[in-house]
Amino acid sequence: MGLCFCAFGQETSLVSGNYTNTSLKDVFLDLESKTDYKFYFLEEGMDQEKVTLNVSSRELDEVLNEVLASTSYNYYIKEDEKRIFIIKNAIIYDELPDGFFKDPTKEEADSSIGQRSNAPPPTFYNEEVRPTAKRYPLVRIGKSDPNNLRPEYTLSGKAINVVSGEAVPDLTIRVKNGDGFVITDGDGNFSIQLSSGYNVLVVRAMGIASTEREVIMYNDGNLDLMLEEGLQQLDEVVVQADAARNVEDADTGSEQIDSEASKNIPLVLGERDILQVAKALPGISSAGEGATGLNVRGGKTDQNLVLLDDAVIYNPQHFFGIFQALNPFTTKGVNIYKGAMPVEYGGRLSSVFDIRTKNGNVEKLAGEGSIGPVTGNLALEIPIVKEKSSLVVGGRGAYADWILRSLDEPSLNNSNASFFDGILKYHHNINDNNEVKATAYYSRDAFSITSDSLYNYDNRLFSLRWDRKMGERTTTAMVLGNSNYGFGIDFDGQANTDFNLDYSINETEFKYKFRTLLNERNTLDYGISAKYYSVNPGSIRPDGNESNISTIRIDKEQALEGALFLGDEFKLSEKFLLDVGVRYAFFAALGPGTQQRYQEGLPKNESTVQETLIYDGAEIIKTYGGPEARVSARYLFTPDFSIKASFNNSYQFLHTLSNNTTVSPIDTWKLSDLNISPQTGYQASLGLYKNFKENEYELSLEGYYKGMDNVLDFKTGADLFLNENVETEVLQGEGKAYGVEFLAKKNRGNLNGWLSYTYSRSLYRFDSEFSEERINNGEFFPSNFDRPHDVSVITNYRITRRYSISANFVYQTGRPVTYPIGTFRFNNADFVAFSDRNEFRIPDFYRLDLGLNIEGNHKKNKLAHSFVTISVYNVLGRNNPYSVFFVTENGEVKALQSSIFAIPIPSITYNFKF
Fold first, then answer.
1. What sign does the CA torsion over 338, 340, 343, 346 have?
2. In CA terms, which of 67, 262, 613, 726 is 20 to 30 Å from 9?
3. Do 332 and 250 share a domain, yes or no?
4. What's the CA gap between 221 and 460, in Å, rounded?
5. Over the stretch 248-290, which tens digit does the pLDDT of each residue have?
């Protein structure tokens, strides 16, 4: 390293030198030893700042500019005293700005002062007045630039759990004694506008220790928040991770459930289940106890997009809907959108269930498990690279045969059932700007209701996600996912009719999305998605050489679905937030395949076929698509009281085919094609949201109206499976749903929980000039899952730190059914005359569950922490009807009722965590 000093003072000072990976301290000391200038600086941290620079005959101030260009340091030369001051972040002011000292009794008349009012004054910071109770030291952000002084700067970063390495979503970051706040997104990212100079950030989230961070803003910059887990006892049934989110966000109809929130809610057979918890929230229900699938705001079960780590899971439930197919110990939680859907989601009319698996512990081996009367469960978190990556492994199995034998149904006494699911998740923090996650999941159910048939169905999926920061203002996520769902029936009868039957649907999706903080008021979300479907509509094959069954195989279906989306979260003011987006959806049904074209103006049946069209491989059969709007707005009357409104419309190109009263595991999915149009729908929502007592209490009242077109139903006695021309059995009509949802919640304290009430209607109409395509004379009629009144009460009372009791009460209007209303005789045979479809209702449903929760001692150093749940499901023994059906005996029609759990079901589950 060499330096040449030529002259200074009134003459030009030229410097030459070669610095290679030299610390700032050594550079300054070298300059000082070669010149008559004295350098003043704090040595702390300078050894970490390295400089590589080659200069020749340059002025000293130019050299200093280059040396400090990529650092957070500035300099100031006091010429008359031959002194150079090196300052971190800030700049030295040798004069105060005009108007700094104002006379408050006089009006400001100097227009030059007004012109300078946008430039912030110098930051005066007194170490002695700092708050002392701080968890972290003061942080200085950015480097002051005299040519770009602004009153506000942007702080960006990511909230990270310091123990697990997981991102912390829905974390509230507030400016202390100010109005500014921001909520981290699903990946923990945030961006907030802060005043120039000193700020205190208050950071809060459920399960995270409350934290205050001091920052001095000199310019735009980054700060990742490394947060500790809260040591306080968590409230067991808090649904949302942050209680203020319901007031502050622009979303309508959105809910969050943490997996921990379900551990104290008494559910059937003691199994923790976030989807069952979801049914206790307003606007979400099912067709009946033990029914697979959820109905959201009057929509059908196939109108819900259920995602597990960005990949679709078609049947997220085991054992006829009694258990969820998600491991509760590897599941972090679920975000539910039943009103305003984010612009990136589409393909379904009613809702999105975005289920996330938690990241593993990157510090040490951890695990959690349970042993119950039906299931055994174990999950492990294994560090791979310390503080960088980990692997989550979860496995779960059932020994459920005794349940079927205990049900009030003699035909099930010899039945058997079992299921299992497994999950792997790997996550790796490559560096501060890149993170990779990969998830693999598989589940399988097998059950035999009769002695000659074995039913099975399975889900498998894989997803790969790469999250990346591209500069201070843009984050990206690249996602690749594959999902497969299939079922089969193996029939082994006494006659020569043995067969094997199967069905499967497979989809592969690629999504690339961006989030950009355009400025302090606009945040853009935009991207592209593409999906490929491959459907095996079903096949049947003889099982064995002696079987008389003929082989039938329906032609494979395939299609492409894509979307472009753009949204803008626009902060009009501190009170008014507008979230506007547009999504263009596109769908193309592809060959090879055969389609029937039917005569116009006539019903679709074999006699009205006009021609048969044959399509080659990858030839486009039919295209559909159009724009989808995403609009939501929030206005804050006060920081804890807001009004929200939203509107969105959607296309759905995928349908389920089922003529059962409720969805079953062997329902098939059908792609839109030449004869079956996509479903379309829109929804408008309006709601009021109010929190009390620092978000301890929460109230919301929300109303909605939903319109739907081309919804599917089927002709009476329709033959759907293995039907080459299934469109001849399909009816497409219109639907409408409307309702009011009320939620009252207590988030903290020894007594906590919530009360939800929903009044809703779900109606459909199928009208045609032809009687065979008309239902109920073309009038609106209640859907199978229309339940006008729905009440849920969830409570938990903590007696001591180890003991608590909980209760779950549910009341629902009985669902609609079709009753026989008379008999008639024709050609010497008796026939039954039925009412209009769904004209009557089964008895109302209500159920009370109770639970006692016992935690192990709270010693810090022990092998494992335990948790025991003793619960009784349906403690009143209510014989709630699952369905009502009719048989004819000796010429008399008799009504029979079937129930799932007609007696109290006790259970005890042991949970452990280490």
1. positive
2. 67
3. yes
4. 42
5. 888 898 888 888 766 667 666 667 788 888 889 999 998 777 6
